[in-house]
Amino acid sequence: MKPYVERQRKLASDYFASAAAKQQFQSAINKAYSSQFSTDELKQIVAFYKTSAGQKLMKQQAKIVNGVATEMLKSADKSLLPKMQAAAVEYGKSARK
């Protein structure tokens, strides 16, 4: 199984590192941002990211998002997981009928 997983990982890595995938990603990003922001707004966003606050945001953003996600998962573990487990048990009972 390990060689299969490694092969799949290599195929995915090679694909996403390809020039075609990078171009497709850039095109999708351009389309997504240009559909939500005007050219002037995009220039302002770029200008912000060149400031020290913008640079700090870029450096810290992943950490912030991960922290929020971790907190949300902790909350989900306490309230959502028991409900999902109960639903799975209920589904299992109904599937046996």
UniProtKB/TrEMBL annotation:
Pfam families for the chain: DUF2059
Domain DUF2059 intervals: 23-72
Stated name of the protein: DUF2059 domain-containing protein
